[in-house]
Amino acid sequence: MFLGIDIGSITVKVVFLDESGNLLESYYRRSQGEPISTVIETLDELFGEYSPGKVEALGTTGSGGSLFAELLGGEHFNELIAQGETVRRRYPKVKTVIELGGQDSKLLILGNSGDRNEIVDFALNSQCSAGTGSFLDQQAERLGLSIQEFSQLALKSNNPPRIAGRCSVFAKSDIIHLQQVGTSQEDIVNGLCYAVARNFLGDVASGKKIRGPVLFQGGVSRNQGMVRAFKDILGLEEGDLMIPRHEVLMSAIGSALLAEDGGMGTRIDWEGKRESLKKKARSKEKVGNRPPLAQKDRTRWKENTEGNLDFKNNRVSKEQDEREGIYLGVDVGSISTNLVAIDKGESPLGKEYLKTAGDPIPTVQKGLRRLKEQLNTEIPIKGVCVTGSGREMIGSLVGADLIKNEITSQATAATRLDPDVDTIFEIGGQDSKYIKLAQSTVTDFSMNKACAAGTGSFLEEQAQRLNIDISEFGNIALKSPSPVDLGERCTVFMESDLIHHQQKGVDKQELIAGLAYSIAINYLNRVVGKKEVGEKVYFQGGVAGNEAVAEAFRQLLEDKKVIVPDHHEVTGAYGAAVLAKEHQSKNENFRTNFYGFDFIDQDFETSTFTCGDCSNRCEIKRVQLADERPLFYGSRCGKYDSSDNKDDKVESSVQEAMSSTPDLFSYRNRQFWGEDFRKLEESDGRLYPTFSDYSKGKIGIPKVLLFWSKFPFWSSFLRTLGFDLVLSKDTDKSLIRESSKHATSETCLPSKIAYGHISNLLTYAEKEGDLDYLFLPAMVSNNNENTDTVSNYNCPLVQGLPYTANGQFDFRGSDFPVEIITQGFHFYSDERLLEELKDLGRKFENTRIEVEEAFSAAKSAEEEAKNTCLKKGREVLGELGPSRLGLVVMSRSYNGCDSGLNMDIPEKLRERGIVPIPVDCLPIQKIDTDRIHPDMQWDWGKRILAAAIFVNRHPYLYGLYLSHFRCGPDSFIIRYAREVLEEEPFLHLEIDEHSADAGIVTRCEAFLDSLKQRKRSQ
Question: Which of 62, 267, 308, 1007 has its CB 3.0 to 4.6 Å from that of 6, i.e. a possible disulfide?
Fold first, then answer.
């Protein structure tokens, strides 16, 4: 008989096979971070039924399997080989294997080698476990579901929303946003299943061809929602996706079968080896090297400032309350919802701190009900302000007078508590914020971008993993003599580290204290970065209640005062209440929009639908209150939001701002893309007809990368030579999803979407059958007016588009009905460029004279587009003043001007009365950046620095640096831009396909609020 043991990161699998390979016994158990003890317990049970002497061969596999092979005298096998052996013997017709386990995912491609079905290709997930079982476990726990309930609930939904599956952090942000706009739980669960399936195809499969029959195995294959998601996304017919009978045991079975084939006889001395294993399990590894958290004289940090909130001694008379009224602040956060009531003197009268639990509407109703019980119901509510990530929806539902971002609310609270505070650390359940103050005015701020490793939900998840109550976290950590150094890694990587240390026997105290340090280190390095930390730091938010985290900050910032104010968990709501009072006091005849406490008893229903009026295909959430008109959320263009959610005053002010604020981005795009195109019937293409009397054919151009700057040149050149041009469709969600299917590596989103645009043109060619060429030139360098040097290079990914695209689509094959043009072009020299264009002309059978004429026309067209934009830009710059500020969006044209990539940031700014200005509309041609950074090689780097210099010289201009994650050049260009702007306020937005509108709006609003405060203080 043969024994197989598979030790994974989450579970232990043990199988016992007879001589024919039949399964006699099997065990599948969670190890809870103690795999050695789990295996001992399992083998004790097995050998209670079968004598250890019956074991003829032992095979182990998995991340922890080698230890048992060494101690018990077996042989250790690679997991892929073990799985492949099981599939080869039991499912010989299978062509593809998809395996999703606790923290690992694998893809096996099988093919015939002689008379055997063997692995011919494979892929593994990266170190991130986002698309695996632990990812789904985390989300199920967040939603209060068992994994079995999760599986069944997914089958009840037919409308899965788009959720980020690449990272549990992004997914959590998406889930919170969906919950706050009323998305049903079954739709969210179903969306998570599709997210994991898409993540697997994008991250693991990475463009590999998946052929049926497909075997889906591992613990996640038990989830019926995942089974349906893979069938749908892969387009598999019934019977093409199989779940093996022993879906979680495939590696263990394979290791036993391989041990049998190896002929290595094994006789297990279980009694003798058992004690060695128990001793190994009991051993504790000492790895802690951080100083103890409790070593400082903690009493000196217990000082109270005179501004601390006191909810006990601020009761005033009923008569005074009725005369002066109450002001209400509501903070609807991702994890908690908080309410605070204050009087006219800004003294707190009552508070409520509730868990949002993914259901903000009933949570706010509950909070209002409790607050009503604390307050005299006859006292009038004079003003209401709502803040937090759920502010838009809740603000509409309760009738808020003011809807404010969290940065402004937290800063308002801190400055009321202590006018001398100069720095705020705010860490909540899902978000963390840094705020710098000077004379009670916000001068700088930042928020966590793509990582929640430094937030409260991260702590709660890890506490749950370590089987401790989060309320005991601080006390346990403070007792640790030697905290483990876990660094500042991503929450998923940190989880892997914790598992590793647990398997080595590290004490829980050391791990918990290490987590407290990791929160503080992650925050300081990723949120604060190189920004200044002042002398008096207020630590606010729910995590501030964790004494261990507060002590970690004090250890790391020895020369600073880190103060945790009383009622730190509701400072956002308190700040909102103060803002409501200020808003009301500015107008003597002001009357609140608050609908009253009747809202607490209203019934409501939520539903979702997809708007098909444009290519964005937004998922619209509808909230229907009893006897009220429905409210809508989720439209990027504001079509639904503006028409039904806002009162007439708010709607009128938004419309006025939009109509009176110049739209330079739309103007710029019309000049560069032209207005003479017409949409082809029954296609997604855009046709630009030739300038000649007859057409020599059609050339497809993807609407990506440098074509956003160079299209006037190429359009005029190719059309003058006699060709019609067909553009790919505008960037939208469906095109981004298509791009992910073809991307085999993680690059910046602007580079990645090129594959979706190319795919769109290839689809057009197949459908229409009349596309002759696909134009993918390697545009190596540019003609930059700001410098005399020739080193005006484009990003390597831009230069290499034809070569990376060939790796995704294999243009060298015969599958595509078009010829690909991949010639290189250098724009820094007219002479060199003309010679390169003549080479292209010869390919098209054009004469030298025809090419020279086309070149002249192309240069004129490009100059006309540029000059028209500059003329319009100068007009708008001349209209700026104290009451009309401009915000220069410092970005490349292909990520800042494409509405499918810029998250409609220009429109969001115009709604708030700020003039967004693209770089192409700035007169920066005579600004020489070589004197600042003579070694700058990048063309767009020079343009962005020139824009920063221009902004610094203009009294009514400010800078917004718009970048995308994984942009290599931006990692240092932004630092140079900051240096140029010196002390000027500056906003940096870094986004990708997973970024949510709520976070972008918060950052924009907070930045604009800081500009207003700055202007008032000057």
Answer: 62
